[in-house]
Amino acid sequence: MSSTETPVHVLILAGGAGTRFWPASRAARPKQLLPLLGGEPLITATARRVLPLCGGADWERIWIATGQHLLSPTRAALPDVSERRLLVEPAPRNTAPCIGWAASTIAREDPEAVVVVLPSDHHIADVPRFLEVLEAAVASARGGAITTIGIRPTHPETGFGYIEAEGAGDTGSAAPRRVLRFVEKPSRERAAEFVASGRFLWNAGMFIFRAGDMRAAIRAHLPALAEGLDEIDRAAAQGAEAEAVLRVFPRLPAVSVDHGVMEHVAGLAVVPGDFGWSDVGSWQSAWELAEKDERGNSAPAGSVLVDARGNHVVDLRARPGGAPDDRRVIALVGVEDLVVVETDDALLIVPRDRAQDVKQVVDALKARGQGRHT
Predict the structure, then answer these.
(1) pLDDT in tens, 102-121
(2) C-alpha span between 188 and 332 (Å, rounded)
(3) What is the pLDDT of residue 374?
């Protein structure tokens, strides 16, 4: 970054509930706080890989938006993030309010600063390529265009929204393209048409903009949200931001930044990306990304796998003193394509191709009054 360029700040969205990765994830421990792919929690990996955008090691430009109930484990996962960079939402209001609040807060330091908004729970295989795409998006945002990242689709996925863009199929460069429209999660038939056309990208929920530009867009398209953010700004100028957030934030309109802002902004840009992206949306996704043996099994060391294929085994039981050998032996015989997840208080066994249905277990437990297990 040259001395004439404004700094880049990264906002990591770290709310959410634990449903698709039950029993590992819970309401108080959603998936971004779990080491689902081995090693560190997903949110920690997210923050580390974008540090080069922030000057190499400047944790002061990493911001986290999370809920009060997740504050303690989030701090533990990100000990290098300053306390004053934690935006703690007193109530869940979707992404537009928390992104608007962050843009307002950063704009008090520098209204020209570029903000990169990222989900906390995604996986990136090719980090250098990812950073190259982000740099192109940052340059676009510095030029005044609110910009997003679109993932080049590899199959007709019905679980993502799509972005139609000019020249989306051109793989020659990471140059920004003009967004034509956002499309909601389509049917399989429409998704197949989108992919075949070459004009559509997956919406990965990554947004890049100058802080002042986002505030202006919110003022134009979400005036009620803008009024609430103005009230918080006035209180912050008097040293009373915390009290104002508690009072104002719960009554802000609950709307996503996609619906509330992005779908209405003129001149929106998208940078296509192809960097091994996954939203790690289910245990099936975790198996796809995991290291596997020659029969396609992913399992803890010491597991016994006899005539077993394509299984994903996860042992998350607590071990006294962290003793690595204090592990129950897990044995699978003659089974294929299962997910087996064990925690201290639950055991999940589900076919991999039904991994998306795990959230039904959470619904059933709540209906039976066993919310403590969710």
Answers:
(1) 999 999 988 889 999 999 99
(2) 34
(3) 86
Predicted pLDDT at 1 = 44
- For 33-82, the pLDDT digits (tens) are 999 887 899 999 999 999 999 887 779 999 999 999 999 999 999 999 99
Half-sphere exposure of 312 (CA within 13 A, CB side): 22
Predicted structure pTM score:
0.93
Per-residue pLDDT reduced to its tens digit, 358-368? 999 999 999 99
- Asked if 234 and 226 count as a contact pair (C-beta separation under 8 A), the reply is no
**CA nearest 111: which of 217, 210, 226?**
210
The residues near 168 (Cβ < 8 Å, ≥ 6 apart) are 150, 152, 177, 198, 199, 200, 201, 270, 272
Cα distance between the two ends of the chain: 45
> Residue 250 has which token pair?
């719960």
Q: What are phi and psi of 29, to 5 degrees?
A: -150, 65
Q: How far apart are CA 45 and CA 50, in angstroms?
A: 9
Tokens of 175: 């140059």
Burial 300-327 (b: 16+ CB within 10 A, else e): eeebebeebbebbbbbeeeeeeeeeeee
Query: Quick check: 269 and 321 in contact, CB under 8 A?
Result: no
CB atoms closer than 10 angstroms to residue 111:
16
* Structure-token pair, residue 227: 């009024």
Q: Quote the CA–CA distance of 59 and 36 in Å, as a whole number.
A: 24
How far out from the chain centre does Cα 228 lie? Answer: 25
Beta bridge partners of 285: none
Sheet containing 312-315: which strands, arranged edge to edge?
A: 312-315, 338-342, 347-351
The rounded distance, in Å, linking the Cα atoms of 98 and 298 is 37
Q: Provide the greatest CA pair distance for the chain.
A: 68
